[in-house]
């Protein structure tokens, strides 16, 4: 098993840059980095992660929805590694929901995202793929895709009134589930 990598935090300039295209997907360093991404994602109990969050300017992201303390209602899916993803289409319908980020600890924001998104990408074997995600997995993809282009979820909230601390957000979840 590989060791987790430190997660880059808000303020690091790498989070505000467009990530570089991956040219050699099969390179041992690329494959080892993907393994470290997966390890870091599991250790941090995240549902998605991007290469810039781990200090590498590369167009690699992982969508890995599963229930956890931060997202107890998340559906379960196998992790999907996406290299050089491109969006093909969005649903017009947008849905607001609360997001957090491993690179922005302690904050949540109410972010409107497209309900579904269709994308193409290469898998970790270099094979071109197409996929359509809806609801929460689509939200994860859009969040991580933003990281590849220098955006964080805070850039997507409509107003600062749509921000909350993680502690207050968790209190609201507990209140809603016990009602």
Describe the structure.
The protein is α+β, with helices and mostly antiparallel strands and 179 residues long. The model has no long low-confidence stretch (mean pLDDT 95). It has a domain at 13-93 and 114-154: Peptide Deformylase (Alpha-Beta Complex). The protein contains three helices and eight strands. The strands form two sheets. It has a five-stranded antiparallel sheet, sandwiched between helices. A three-stranded antiparallel sheet has the order 4-5-8.
List key phrases describing it.
alpha+beta, Peptide Deformylase, five-stranded antiparallel β-sheet
Biggest sheet layout: 5 strands, antiparallel
The general outline is: globular
The CATH class of the domain at 13-93 and 114-154, by name, is Alpha Beta
Estimate the mean pLDDT confidence.
95
Strand order of the largest sheet: 1-2-3-6-7
Known CATH architecture of the domain at 13-93 and 114-154: Alpha-Beta Complex
The fold-level CATH name of the domain at 13-93 and 114-154 is Peptide Deformylase
Taking all Cα atoms into account, the compactness measure Rg is 16 Å
Strand content: 25-35%
Distance between the termini: 42 Å
CATH homologous superfamily heading of the domain at 13-93 and 114-154: Peptide deformylase
Order of helices and strands: HEEEEEEEHEH
Counted beta strands: 8
How much helical structure, as a percent, in the residues?
10-25%
Poorly predicted regions: none
Query: Total number of helical segments?
Result: 3
Structural class: alpha+beta
Keywords: Hydrolase, Iron, Metal-binding, Protein biosynthesis
Organism: Petrachloros mirabilis ULC683
Binding site for Fe cation: 101, 143, 147
Function: Removes the formyl group from the N-terminal Met of newly synthesized proteins. Requires at least a dipeptide for an efficient rate of reaction. N-terminal L-methionine is a prerequisite for activity but the enzyme has broad specificity at other positions.
